[in-house]
């Protein structure tokens, strides 16, 4: 095998620096044979899959660990999936949302792993579900203890460092992650670097457009508060100056305390909330009960943790556009 012929001259210098020219040329062609001549990329869940497919295009074959319709938080891997991880050329994941996946990736021996949380700035929103309480009346302090229980549960479910993992729901942060994923694919497969660059630029352009649509679409609304099922929209709320009030915490399976439900009813009245949002992959029971008790409407706000036929759109961009329309309607956008 002539290594020089496999690697364009422009990238040869970079590859030599790694000291692994022959090795990486051979191993990537082995992997290429396995995945039909394409770079084998494993994505941990839908938002990562979307980035890999958009940027990788025809040069990659993407496998996703979280099957469509499966709620990704705390996903457990089948032993076979964990074993297959080792065959990936590149793994794209988001550390902190799926601890079992994080562990399997660490043990997989795959050199090209991209952790999305290292590509943007992480923030903590985990305790903001009850952040706004304590306004005015002393009576509200009685609720605080019950809230602490909820928060303790949230903290367990959040990543070890307490950061909110839902960065993909902010188009600006997602664009930063996209650039990092693009750079990782270029490094893993320098032969197609130009295409990865082109695709990254196109995707970042779409995300910029989405950001502008959200900024303009939510600039003037009659309320800034929205109620969601789980606290997935902290970054989105932060970006567009909205207040997220979540029924559950960071994890959609967490049950709210009766005190939290009562508090949400108060907030809904105070902030003239019209709608309680539920989502496609998690139980909508509490959202519908709360809406029924408070005389509010319900609608879907999709955290895009997976995509199915029931999703309001075929991909991330389309579902985010549906989310924008749902938010505009719920918030009374002018
Ligand atoms: Zn989530």
Description:
By secondary structure, this protein is α/β, with parallel strands linked by helices. It has helices spanning 3-6, 9-18, 21-34, 46-56, 79-85, 99-107, 144-157, 171-188, 193-217, 234-240, 258-270, 285-294, 316-331, and strands at 39-43, 60-64, 90-93, 112-115, 225-228, 243-246, 275-278, 297-300. The strands form three sheets. A four-stranded parallel beta sheet has the order 2-1-3-4, with helices on both faces. The chain has a two-stranded parallel ribbon with strand order 5-6. Strands 7-8 form a two-stranded parallel sheet. α10 links the parallel β5 (225-228) and β6. α8 packs antiparallel against α9 and α9 (193-217) packs parallel to α13 (316-331). The protein is globular, with a radius of gyration of 22 Å. Mean pLDDT is 83; it is low at 1-31 and 127-157. The site of zinc ion has 7 residues, from loops.
Write the layout of secondary structure elements.
Layout: H1 3-6, H2 9-18, H3 21-34, E1 39-43, H4 46-56, E2 60-64, H5 79-85, E3 90-93, H6 99-107, E4 112-115, H7 144-157, H8 171-188, H9 193-217, E5 225-228, H10 234-240, E6 243-246, H11 258-270, E7 275-278, H12 285-294, E8 297-300, H13 316-331
Parallel strand pairs: 1-2, 1-3, 3-4, 5-6, 7-8
Helix pairs in contact: 4-8, 4-9, 8-9, 9-13
